[in-house]
Amino acid sequence: MPTTAPIDPAEFVHTGYQLAEHVLTVTLNRPERRNALNWRAYAELEAAFRAAHGDPQVRCVIVTGADPAFCSGDDVAEIMAAPDGGIAARGATTIHNPPTPAAIAALDCAKPVIAAVNGAAIGWGCELALFADLRVASDRARFSEMFVKRGLSCDVGGFYRLPALVGPEKAAELLFTGDILDAAEAQRIGLVGRVVPHERLLDEARALAERIAANPPLAVRALKAGLRRATFGDPQELGGWAIDTIRRLAATADHREGVASFLEKRAPSFQGR
């Protein structure tokens, strides 16, 4: 079951939380599972972004993963195999089907967020990168909105931010196919701002964060708020619809087949039911 009480960053199990010189680095730390998200990791991400939002010492946030991956999305065995497709694990448990709390916490964070994408950003891992204001990618990074391969639709990031970054037609292609992009292609289409050698990734992200953190924090917050208003609008209603859609698709035979074929390491056979 998902946690219901707020988590203190000092109690994090799967997430590193390090503040230095006004830059907070949040590191997903399940490398043995390629930083796949279970219920605890979702809750810790939500807590990290909410803590960053409320901490006046934080002026910029870097989110990254412990090598070799950024985030491989939902833990298929623990979350996607659940009867509700992982809705409860994401924290969206009420009858009103709210957006994933970790997603809204990331989007609501008033401080600039940089995704330092050090490896695979798959499924909800790609969503997490999309929630950031800026994306710096290692040359080893890979991106995929792979929900369709599991018989599900994406969370709010794929609907809300992906089309604004890459255009509606390219977003449709990525969502409908679940194709994997390498870092160079992701930069070419505008999904990431820059690609750097893997060994320089955190240094580059940190240098960018420090330049942001050196500016007047109230002005930076106002600029972020203005960009969001101009570019993206309000994600709450769309996020609620996305969660309701995931819940309905989670009850289909195609979703069960997508999960089973992944766990059994075989090609899926989808029947449209």
Question: How would you characterize the overall build of this protein?
Answer:
This protein is α/β, with parallel strands linked by helices. It has one domain (9-198, 217-263): Alpha-Beta Complex (2-enoyl-CoA Hydratase, Chain A, domain 1). 44% of the residues lie in helices and 14% in strands. It contains 13 helices and nine strands. It has helices at residues 39-54, 76-80, 87-90, 101-108, 124-131, 156-160, 162-166, 168-177, 183-188, 201-213, 217-231, 236-249, 253-263; strands at 15-20, 23-28, 60-65, 113-117, 120-122, 134-138, 142-144, 181-182, 194-196. The strands form two sheets. The protein has a six-stranded mixed β-sheet, sandwiched between helices. The protein has a three-stranded mixed β-sheet with strand order 5-7-8. A hairpin with a 2-residue loop joins strand 1 and strand 2 (23-28). Helix 1 (39-54) packs parallel to helix 4 (101-108). The longest helix is centred in the first third of the chain and has 16 residues, at 39-54. The two termini are 28 Å apart. Mean pLDDT is 89; it is low at 92-97.
